[in-house]
Amino acid sequence: MFVKPAAGMKIRDPDMKDFLPDEGRDVPDDHLYWVKRLSDKDVELAERPEPKEASPQTEVEVRDQDHAETSAVDDTSTHREGSA
């Protein structure tokens, strides 16, 4: 089931060890914790958001940003050419 916190509520997710996001999350239907939260009106059923399809251009841009950060050369190295 897909649930989101009721207005003004901060609900911990016992499996993910974080707070349930305001936009909601998919949780197990048969988990007693979530059944109880729903019964107590701490969370409410919500519709799953439509998955966003990333364009190939967006994926390439993100990939390039990741590589740009990790492939930087450290010019402050203490190793000098010719020394052992």
Automatic annotation (TrEMBL):
Pfam families: DUF2635. It comes from Paraburkholderia largidicola. Residues 1-27, 41-84 are annotated as: Disordered. Residues 10-27, 41-53, 60-69 have a biased composition (Basic and acidic residues). This is DUF2635 domain-containing protein.
